[in-house]
């Protein structure tokens, strides 16, 4: 594949640093291409272009920008298969998953925000003999920083609302998964989006991301990534009073009540645990099971997990591909070893020390889906975000204990409750300190709803009106009659 370039001011350009990074396929260990290792000057170039384009883009009508989003959705849809293939190459995820989740959602993000922005209503309040008119203006040039687990899915989730509200963009995808951000730039270029409205700068977080966050002419930062990185971003942005949205890590609880119909919910529980090799911020990595059904649960769950097909991401029948990198595999394996030191028992999976997980791909960063039992709820493996195909099992005796265990973490992103009584599940869900809790389902998303975390899982909400508000400055004009 041709080396990737930055996309700045309507042109594909090499980085001013003249340096590049290798982009690796984690399922084979092979180099796919190279990606610019950009620096401050490249960010400066992009920020200038985005600011130069601001006035004209903000002067377009909402209807015109909605039209742009529909055209982008159509163009991405026409390239769905490319998106799926590139996402699978970059991340090691099964191409079938990339097609079903990443490609489909990238298209629907643009479609959704086009339709949702069309429902915006003028807000007018009468009082004290005056009329208050709430106006929306774009924030300006916004910086969008995204992680590697759902590359175009998460980038498009920010680009669509930012564009439709009239902002111009400097985007930085993860250096490990740059291919589909580049595809998006190609699509926008072919559609003749006015130059400077969307700019893409590739490179490392501390170089490019930090320069974006610190730049005084980047007026808002929407960041999705790890909690430790989010803290660095917040530290830089806060004294500048920049608008900031932080979507960070999680350590989500999956609560299985004693009345859960195991025959029908186990497949959902496996999905909630191991989709994308557990590398979805919403995956449940701590399974809390009522002690009365523990044995039946373990029997059915472990059997299903052990039968997942791990290996070649290009094989349509593969359930789980590789993790994102060899370094990440080593980190996850380190946690599995730690769990054993902490007194845990591996019920299925484990490290890849003895035999390669996929004989045909001995150099791939594969791991078997791993279930660990017997750890205390405050063990490191049960409290730190592993972000891989590893779940820990814990038992509880009653609802209060389940809630206490679910909340015994510094994170609060997501969770799920599984029960035969939806009302009971709803009541329990409200006691869990998380931005989102599913009852008898998982990753069932209505894009109009608020999405985001509490505690160390982030600050702010995305989705529907919340995204449109983040990418707008609201001002009130009060006219005395
Ligand atoms: P990361 O924090 O390492 O990187 C995220 C992005 O930030 C990358 O583009 C990276 O290059 C950039 N970055 C790194 N250092 C930076 C700095 N100093 N300044 C600015 N930008 C910097 O995260 P990751 O490993 O790519 O992704 C995994 C993490 O993302 C997990 O913790 C996961 O839970 C989280 N995540 C959260 C959500 C959510 O919606 N809450 C969604 C997906 C992933």
Task: Report what the structure shows.
It is a single chain. The protein has 481 residues and is α/β, with parallel strands linked by helices. The protein is built from 16 helices and 22 strands. The protein has helices at residues 40-52, 54-58, 62-78, 80-91, 95-117, 151-164, 179-190, 205-214, 227-237, 262-274, 294-306, 326-341, 380-383, 399-406, 422-429, 464-470; strands at 6-8, 11-13, 20-24, 31-36, 123-127, 130-138, 141-145, 168-172, 198-200, 220-224, 243-247, 252-256, 284-290, 345-348, 370-373, 390-396, 411-412, 414-418, 436-439, 454-455, 458-459, 472-480. Helix 1 (40-52) runs parallel beside helix 8 (205-214), helix 3 (62-78) runs antiparallel to helix 5 (95-117) and helix 4 packs across helix 5. The relative contact order is 0.14.
Concise description?
Helix content is 39%, strand content 22%.
Q: Could you give the topology of this structure?
A:
Layout lengths: L5 E3 L2 E3 L6 E5 L6 E6 L3 H13 L1 H5 L3 H17 L1 H12 L3 H23 L5 E5 L2 E9 L2 E5 L5 H14 L3 E5 L6 H12 L7 E3 L4 H10 L5 E5 L2 H11 L5 E5 L4 E5 L5 H13 L9 E7 L3 H13 L19 H16 L3 E4 L21 E4 L6 H4 L6 E7 L2 H8 L4 E2 L1 E5 L3 H8 L6 E4 L14 E2 L2 E2 L4 H7 L1 E9 L1
Parallel strand pairs: 7-8, 7-10, 8-9, 10-11, 12-13, 12-18, 13-16, 15-16, 18-19
Antiparallel strand pairs: 1-2, 3-4, 5-6, 6-22, 11-21, 14-15, 17-20
Helix pairs in contact: 1-8, 3-5, 4-5, 5-6, 10-11
The structure holds nicotinamide-adenine-dinucleotide.
């Amino acid at each position: 594949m041709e080396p990737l370039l930055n996309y700045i001011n309507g042109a594909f350009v090499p980085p001013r640093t003249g340096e590049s990074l290798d982009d690796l396929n984690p399922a084979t260990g092979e180099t796919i291409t190279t990606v610019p290792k950009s620096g401050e000057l490249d960010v400066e170039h992009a920020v200038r272009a985005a600011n130069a384009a601001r006035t004209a883009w903000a002067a377009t009508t909402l209807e015109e920008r909605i039209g742009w989003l529909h055209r982008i959705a159509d163009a991405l849809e026409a390239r769905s298969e490319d998106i799926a293939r590139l996402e699978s190459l970059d991340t090691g995820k099964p191409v079938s998953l990339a097609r079903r989740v990443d490609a489909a959602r990238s298209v629907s993000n643009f479609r959704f925000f086009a339709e949702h922005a069309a429902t915006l209503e003028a807000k007018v309040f009468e009082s004290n003999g005056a009329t208050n008119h709430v106006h929306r203006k774009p924030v300006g040039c916004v910086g969008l920083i995204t992680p590697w687990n759902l590359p175009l899915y998460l980038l498009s989730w920010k680009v669509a609302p930012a564009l439709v509200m009239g902002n111009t963009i400097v985007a930085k995808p993860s250096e490990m998964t740059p291919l589909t951000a580049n595809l998006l730039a190609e699509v926008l270029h072919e559609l003749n989006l006015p130059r400077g409205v969307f700019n893409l700068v590739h490179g490392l977080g501390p170089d490019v991301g930090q320069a974006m966050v610190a730049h005084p002419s980047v007026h808002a930062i929407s960041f999705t990534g790890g909690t430790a990185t989010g803290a660095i971003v917040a530290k830089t942005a806060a004294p500048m009073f920049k608008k900031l949205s932080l979507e960070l890590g999680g350590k989500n609880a999956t609560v299985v009540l004693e009345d859960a119909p195991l025959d029908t919910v186990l497949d959902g529980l496996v999905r909630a645990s191991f989709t994308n090799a557990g590398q979805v911020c919403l995956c449940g990595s701590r399974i809390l099971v009522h002690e009365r059904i523990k044995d039946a649960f373990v029997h059915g769950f472990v059997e299903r997990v052990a039968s997942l097909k791990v290996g070649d991401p290009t094989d349509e029948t593969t359930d789980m591909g590789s993790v994102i990198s060899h370094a990440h595999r080593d980190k996850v394996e380190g946690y599995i070893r730690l769990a054993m030191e902490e007194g845990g028992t591996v019920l299925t999976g484990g490290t890849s020390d003895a035999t390669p997980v996929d004989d045909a791909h001995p150099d791939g960063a594969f791991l078997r889906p791993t279930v660990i039992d017997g750890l205390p709820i405050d063990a490191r493996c049960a409290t730190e975000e592993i972000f891989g195909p590893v779940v820990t099992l814990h038992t509880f005796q009653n609802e209060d204990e389940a809630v206490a265990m679910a909340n015994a973490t510094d994170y609060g992103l997501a969770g799920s409750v599984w029960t035969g009584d939806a009302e009971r599940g709803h009541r329990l869900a409200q006691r869990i300190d998380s931005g989102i809790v599913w009852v008898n389902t998982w990753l069932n998303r209505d894009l109009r709803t608020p999405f985001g975390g509490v505690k160390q899982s982030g600050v702010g909400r995305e989705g529907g009106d919340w995204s449109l508000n983040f990418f707008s400055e609201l001002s009130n004009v009060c006219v005395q009659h």
